[in-house]
């Protein structure tokens, strides 16, 4: 069954934008975790490391969805 384009009731996810934001979150959280570790703030380091791990999981999930969309022949821009 071919998936219909996004509608008002059932919008399509902006996967490319979500991927870009997840990569940005991964970079920021990793950098902040390193700075917190150097400063000796262990709880803050752990918090940023956990957020970075969540970003990695999101990147994997979104990447899989993008691959499935492309296999179906769908192409999207960053904001679609």
Compact overview of the structure:
This protein has one domain.
Mind sketching the topology for me?
Layout: H1 15-39, H2 42-71
Helix pairs in contact: 1-2
Pfam families: DUF6343
Transmembrane segments: 21-41, 47-67
Organism: Streptosporangium amethystogenes subsp. fukuiense
Task: Name some characteristics of this structure.
mainly alpha; 2 helices; transmembrane; transmembrane helix; membrane; DUF6343 family protein
Q: How does this model look, in words?
A:
The chain has 80 residues and is an all-alpha fold. The chain has helices spanning 15-39, 42-71. The chain has one domain. The protein is built from two helices and no strands. The chain crosses the membrane at residues 21-41, 47-67. It comes from Streptosporangium amethystogenes subsp. fukuiense.
